[in-house]
Amino acid sequence: MMKHGKAGRGRRIRTCIVNSLLFATLSLLSCDTESEIKPEPNPGLTKAEFLGRMTVQERYWRIEEISRQEEDQIATLNVREKTTLLSNHYLNEVIPFVAVQFGRGYYGKGTVTESQMTGAYGKVPFGEFQCVLMLRSTKKSGEWSWDNERKMMKLPLPESIQSLVAAMSGTDWQPDSGYVASEPAPLFRGVEEARRAASPERIKILVEEQTVQGKITYAFIMRAAWLTDVETRDAEHKFGVSLY
Q1: Are 63 and 98 a contacting pair, CB within 8 Å?
Q2: What is the mean predicted confidence (pLDDT) over 209-234?
Q3: Would you put residue 71 in left (φ > 0), alpha (ψ -120 to 50) or beta?
Q4: Tell me: the pLDDT tens digits for 37-74?
Q5: Cβ pair 116, 222 in contact under 8 A
Q6: In sequence order, which residues have a C-beta less than 8 Å from that of residue 181 and are 6 or more positions away?
Q7: Residue 100: helix, strand or coil by DSSP?
Q8: I need a labelling partner for 205 at 20 to 30 A (CA). Which of 84, 141, 155, 182 fits?
């Protein structure tokens, strides 16, 4: 009986040791697995990085998509298709030519300009497209600034976006300013980075209308058109290729 008891205790001890080693091994594997699949936190761009990428001069922003949100109701507009939100005038004679640019002027002040540009706009596959920039159409909308409270760029609205918002509002309201949302953020610091990436780059311009019923938010998804292979044939036009 004593021998049987010692043998039993030995087996139990060995079993405990094996289970302990197995538990320790599984715990280590679990820790390793967690460290592999846990995503790294994405701090996003700093203010300086965001503004630096927004003010690259070879890039123009074209309208890809527009949405109107009132409470939880969102209407999204594909600008290359007919819609009840906008007339054919805006779809055919305004949106296809919008080209907005952010820069810096004297003493580092932020500038917002708008020009008319032909070529790709709206939702189309990424590619290279022939385009013409109409130089005499360029107008300065005003100066952008940084809103420290909202942590977003505030901009004076270009005339085209003002008119589009007013048309969708259906009232006499004329917005004068909006914001560039922090996401999606500008991706590239120059045309060569955009060429290597070969993928669309977007920002979102927000315009807010306060009504008796509440707030209406108009969101303009703006897609980058990088102007390359430029040829200036006269004082009024720049011919080139847009990476869009």
Answers
A1: yes
A2: 95
A3: left
A4: 333 334 589 999 999 999 999 999 999 999 999 999 99
A5: no
A6: 152, 203, 204, 205, 206, 219
A7: strand
A8: 84
Torsion 105-110-113-117 (CA) sign: positive
Contact (Cβ atoms closer than 8 angstroms) between residue 231 and residue 239 = yes
pTM equals 0.81
State the sign of the Cα–Cα–Cα–Cα dihedral 21, 22, 26, 27: negative
Closest to 90 measured CA to CA, from 66, 60, 69, 120: 66
pLDDT for 43 equals: 59
Strand partners, 225: 60
Are 139 and 183 contacting, i.e. CB atoms less than 8 angstroms apart?
no
Tens digits of residue pLDDT in 142-172: 999 999 999 999 999 999 999 999 999 988 8
